[in-house]
Amino acid sequence: MLRVLLRRFKFIFFVLILVWTSLPFSQLFAQFSGYQLSEGSAYNSALSSQGIGLNDSASNLTGNPAFFAFHGKHIIEAGAAGSRANSATGPVLLNGGGYYQFTPALGMGIRFKPIYHRFFPSDERFVNYTGQAIVTYKLNELFSMGFALGPSVSNRPGGFSSYSWNATGMFAFHWESLSIGVVLESPGANRFEAYLGTESLKERYPERASIGIKYELTSALFIYGEVHRFFWERSMFSQNGLEERPGFPVRTMYNGSLGIGYKILETTDLLFGGKKDANPTTSGVLDPVYGVSVGIKNEIFPSVFGKGLYGSIYLQRTGVIKPNEPFVPETSLGFQVHSVFDRQIENPVPPKI
């Protein structure tokens, strides 16, 4: 079993390094602008979601790790996604990490993932990443909870920001065909001492409260939906000491998505989704932006790596309905590789007497 696990780890590590070394290491130059919520894993993105209420192991590391407690498995994962608009290509976003189930109730892990970004127009590029330690605890057969905490950093003109803290609370409910998840996230605030070369900038990112609900109609078919409330009224932008707070109407601070998954084979899932996002504009409104996505999850070469190594891929298009404000439609493509293995060693060898 150890040999198989080493093969999986080497495969995932190789894929991640291959993607990283193929990236164009260009600096992100931008004008100060708004930003949008970044995609999570490829499985979640195929459903146009963040995976708040999904109980699939391919979803939980970047989505809602509290669901890990119901699996009783260990996880290793890595993924990447890129986007393109018109003739411009955005930087590749990476995510990954691992999770270890110590007891039937307690598990811990680490993850890194993008939180907010903006790549188009190309002169308004921005990205915010976090790396977190995760703790989850299964309260009983129906409820689980978790907490994640770690540093976050952003990139704008002039380089990287100072470090801040991203704190996330998670709750999960699972009963027969119904799964419900709740995630509360505070991304923190970052400071740039050389924004646009000479200016100072401090920004506090909008906190988020999210709920997701999944229902399995049959053993092969499920529907999923989630809603997000972004607290833009708590965000803040301070440039050279001049503080501003966005005045977006509260009714526009809600986004959501709907998705459907169908198991076409025992180890193959086909996924579809649609979502409503919001584009923060310089005119002081959150303009609705709609997108659709499709993806697939499948087991990877079980004869070579053994059972439990899965790959997911998705394709997403935003701006499928023309927004009211100027917006550059984007096409995103991403993949994910994750390994699942049991908490207990299979067929342990009895000690010699």
Unreliable residue stretches: 16-32, 345-353
Outline type: globular
The biggest beta sheet is recorded as: 14 strands, antiparallel, barrel
Q: What is the H/E order?
A: HEHHHEEEEEEEEEEEEEEEEEEHEE
Please list the strands of the largest sheet in the order they lie side by side: 2-4-5-6-7-9-10-13-14-17-18-19-20-21
- The averaged pLDDT comes out at 85
Specify the number of helices: 5
Regarding quaternary structure, what we see is: single chain
Count of all domains: 1
The percent of residues in helical segments reads 10-25%
**CATH class categorisation:** Mainly Beta
Rg measurement, Å: 20 Å
Sum up the structure in keywords:
353 residues; mainly beta; Porin; 14-stranded antiparallel barrel; four-stranded antiparallel beta sheet; globular
What does this molecule look like?
The protein is mainly β. The chain has one domain (2-341): Porin (Beta Barrel). 10% of the residues lie in helices and 54% in strands. The protein has five helices and 21 strands. The protein has helices at residues 2-21, 42-46, 57-60, 68-71, 302-305; strands at residues 36-37, 73-85, 88-89, 93-101, 106-118, 126-138, 143-156, 159-160, 164-175, 178-186, 189-195, 199-204, 207-216, 221-231, 236-239, 242-244, 254-265, 268-280, 286-299, 309-318, 330-342. The strands form two sheets. The protein has a 14-stranded antiparallel barrel. The chain has a four-stranded antiparallel sheet with strand order 11-12-15-16, with no helix packed on it. Strand 4 and strand 5 form a beta hairpin. The radius of gyration is 20 Å and the shape is globular. Residues 16-32 and 345-353 have low confidence and may be disordered.
